[in-house]
Amino acid sequence: MNIHNNIQKIKLAIDQAIKASGRTSPVKLLAITKSRSIDEIKEAIDAGQLYFGESYVQEAISKITALCGFSIEWHFIGPIQANKTKLIANYFSWVHSVDRINIAQRLNDQRTEKTPLNICIQVNISGEATKSGVSLGEIMPLAQAIITLPKIRLRGLMTIPKLTYDIDEQRENFHKLKLALERLNKQGFNLDTLSMGMSSDFISAIPEGATIIRLGKAIFG
Ligand SMILES: *Cc1c(COP(=O)(O)O)cnc(C)c1O
């Protein structure tokens, strides 16, 4: 297994992309561990990895429980069914995939931790029928409804753009999400998170302001 080496290489690539783009804010590396074993996750922890993301609730909870002795942070990034919100609200620190108010409301009502749950609104930036997420026009009303919820802290926006290996197209999609976050902040929001960039496109997401990149294959092969 080369998980340790992969993480080191990715960190160097992130640092280079940060320097090349002239930005100063850090990028949080989220290791996506859906379908990965406890041993693989432990190897990533050994390599200094602190932040982990999962897409399926039951699979995630068995891993979170098995690894509860480690001080690591868990992010939920998958589709959310209403009957799973109680588990999501209490096992995770972050949820990246909120795209409707009733889900945000349930997460708020069911969170029993003292600290608020960090959430991002998922945006369907390429308008693909198969992907979840709100359209650009739906962001503002959803954000306005979410910020009234006391146990939820709205942090920003997340997207999974259409898969493309064209660098300009990758940049264009990420740029749209960056502009959407700027629009919210001009309206008085105070949001600091752009969750964008996966194994095939994270190098394009960094110059567009990504603050969290979500990598599976690049870390675990
Ligand atoms: C699986 C997944 C990732 C990681 O994808 P890779 O291509 O393996 O880096 C990132 N974000 C979401 C929402 C995912 O479901």
Brief characterization of the structure:
The chain is α/β, with parallel strands linked by helices and 221 residues long. It has helices spanning 3-21, 38-46, 57-66, 85-91, 101-110, 139-146, 167-186, 202-205, 217-220, and strands spanning 28-32, 51-54, 73-76, 94-98, 117-123, 152-159, 193-195, 212-215.
Number of helices: 9
- Strand neighbour order, sheet with most strands: 7-6-5-4-3-2-1-8
Bound molecules: pyridoxal-5'-phosphate
**Percent range for helical residues?**
40-55%
Helix-strand pattern:
HEHEHEHEHEHEHEHEH
Radius of gyration: 17 Å
Low-confidence stretches: none
Name the average pLDDT.
Answer: 97
* Main sheet record: 8 strands, parallel
Q: Which geometry do the CA atoms define?
A: globular
Structural class: alpha/beta
Strand content: 15-25%
Distance between the termini: 9 Å
Number of strands: 8
